[in-house]
Amino acid sequence: MKPAVAILISGVTAAVISLITAASVTRASGAAAPPAPDPLRPQLEQLRSEVQALRSQLNALPKESPAPASARPEAAPRAAAPPAAASLPAAPKEGPSLDQIRLVLRQGMTPEAVQKLFEEARKGKSMEALVRSLEAIVEENPQDPSAHCLLARSCIEALMVEPDFIKKGDWARKADAEYVKAIERDPAYWDALYGRALSLSWWPEQLGKLPEAIAGFEKALELQAGSAAQPRYADTYAQLGRLYTKAARTDKAMTVLSEGLRVFPGNDEIKKQLDLLQKR
Question: How many CB atoms are closer than 10 A to CB 70?
Fold first, then answer.
């Protein structure tokens, strides 16, 4: 609104208020008010004249035409509310590619290559993604024992970083099932025999997996045939000695640990277990 118009309206408003106030005072004094005395009449006439003058000035002001519809500023469209965080798809996690996994399998699953694969998955927090990739590879090659064995090992890795105790059990059962499939396809597959035995050795005792774990290590030890070609073979002696002791088969434990120390004379774990048994 223009300032001049505002001033005129304020003047008119003030005049009207004055008239209403005067009339109210007169009405409050009685139902039939006498004519206004002579001193008041000139003031009323002057007020009426001022109101009339103000009205004339107001009418003389140019009328503001409303802005055309096209010229009116349009309200900015309301931005769509972002979807709830829970509905957003999870960002893809980085991790080993299918080609990297296939390369590890083709190279014979060397301990160094497998360890590097798991380290990369842990670094990218993509252990479960690695499991899914291996499941796809197993589906492509269901008769490949190494694929089943690597899938089982990846399940064990996922178990180790899983905070939920119930889900840990799910990962353990899935790992065992894949180890069994690998052994079914190749009964002389040392990695699968050793891996399954090691996994079962840590299952709760009340589940009764100790005999299966011992049998798995015994088979792996047979396949090693006293060889020291690979440092990891030493752990078969140490693990089997531990389980024999746990099952109260002390004589068997002494025998296997003594043999292990002969093949791997510098192995601290085998020596430690043997010393403890000899002190009993």
Answer: 6
